[in-house]
Amino acid sequence: PATATKLNTKRSEEIFKEAQELLPGGVNSPVRAFKSVGGQPIVFDHVKGAYCWDADNNKYIDYVGSWGPAIVGHANDEVNEALKAQIEKGTSFGAPCELENVLAKMVIERVPSVEMVRFVNSGTEACLSVVRLMRAYTGREKIIKFTGCYHGHADQFLVQAGSGVLTLGLSDSPGVPATTAAATLTAQYNDIESVKALFEANKGEIAGLILEPVVGNSGFIPPTKEFLQGLRDVCTKEGAVLCFDEVMTGFRIAKGCAQEYFGITPDVTTMGKVIGGGLPVGAYGGKKELMQMVAPAGPMYQAGTLSGNPLAMVAGIKTLEILARPGAYEHLDKVTKRLISGILDAAKETGHAMCGGSISGMFGFFFCEGPVSSFEDAKASDTAKFGKFHRGMLEQGVYLAPSQFEAGFTSLAHTEEDIDRTIEAARTVLKSL
Ligand code: PMP
């Protein structure tokens, strides 16, 4: 077996050292700092297809994909060509442009719950806007979310949140007003009784419920179909707005997002990541009746200087166009299944407790026996072992999300050869642990 070669990260070290004087923690988004896995974060220089190169010119097979957007592969030639052509026509209008209609039509046609859509600039913005909409529509204030789910960094979501909040063990953030946090109730994922109990205890006060239809922000946790159906039923019965936060799953799980995959239609949907094809875009949409409440059609205020930005629209349009081609989701499903079954087999062979799974181009694994059906289960995983595994994989030329509590992503650019190299790397690292 090949012994892991120590990575040369001299330039990454220099750049990150300087960054720590300039940016809080050296980064502009917390998980990038590798705090939970330890060791030197990798500073990127460039990306292409399924690969990324760091500042020391080490090459990695990338399973982060910019945390989701890079589903057609990094720096895709067609997306790049479309962007170059658009740049000549201007980078920002702050006025209506036809590209917004084109992307809106693509979204409306694909996503079952969306009859009308508003574009924003991030997933956070989409989710905070949708909560305002739930409240405006119902005249109620409380919302329900699930422990370990992440919906961006707006005040009302920093209550038992996933992703970096969880990775850094912060669970709740200072600076969030107690009154805001008090209006966010938390239930346990895949546990419909915990949801019903909240509705019962807060009769007529719940504006809506938001969830990741497949969890990615406490690691990869799929829902049961009965759980999603139960949520649909209880929200309908109680007159609460059901929101699928498809920022991660949107256009990744299936052409029509997780709601198409599971056959459960929410009232509203938030989107991000893939929809911008690598540029900053988020979106929320739903039934016309709800969306007509948004200004200037209705009284609920929400706006954005760069919203509907022409470059961002072009990258989104091209990305969704590529994803609509025959075989796209089949490819994602095939390579990702091969990856996760290969890694799990390697764990079994080398005697490590590991569980995991995938749906289409989204996957994850935990260092524990499993099964993991909620964040409460995910907590049982051996995060110290994950940290060692992560570093070992880097040394083998594989870039994984630097946290046990984040899902992984594949792209149309990942080949079976990339997958097999990754599985070999995993076997080598697992043997050494
Ligand atoms: N919702 C979900 C499900 C997410 O995964 C994320 C980001 N990882 C967000 C919301 C927030 O999106 P953004 O980082 O673009 O603000």
Automatic annotation (TrEMBL):
This is glutamate-1-semialdehyde 2,1-aminomutase. It catalyses: (S)-4-amino-5-oxopentanoate = 5-aminolevulinate. Homodimer. It is an enzyme of class 5 (isomerase). Its cofactor is pyridoxal 5'-phosphate. PANTHER family: GLUTAMATE-1-SEMIALDEHYDE 2,1-AMINOMUTASE, GLUTAMATE-1-SEMIALDEHYDE 2,1-AMINOMUTASE 1, CHLOROPLASTIC-RELATED. NCBIfam families: hemL (TIGR00713), PRK00062.1 (NF000818). It comes from Chlorella variabilis (Green alga).
